[in-house]
Amino acid sequence: MDSTQKLFSDIEKTKKRYRAEHSDQYSGREVCRAVIQLFAQNNKTLEALAESWGNYWFESRIMTSANADNEPSTESLDVLAAMQNLLSLKDEETDCLTGEDWSNLCEETNFAAEDLPLEALNSLMSIFLDHKAL
Description:
By secondary structure, the protein is mostly helical. Helices cover about 65% and strands about 0% of the residues. About 30% of the residues are buried.
């Protein structure tokens, strides 16, 4: 199981647990806050950056969703999966990221640069350069 599959498995468990504990009222926003923590924990060596990217995902996808209380949707999870691929230093399945996403993720990475492992930083910057986000 790769890191993206593990993340999605954990997200499904979180959604089921939340529904079981709050059968009368599902809050997509609360579930998505928990998803951010899962996302960060799934990326231990880049945890602070993952949390920052997760917060960006929440603000750009969840808070702007017409159905925020029913999130996370397949579309918003696709974006999170693309971010997971980037944090795994893979430039695959990232087509759902917009130019604005690339720029913002690059900016967040620049802010965290001094705390990132050099190899990861170099790989991420190379990917951002390929996507003209620098």
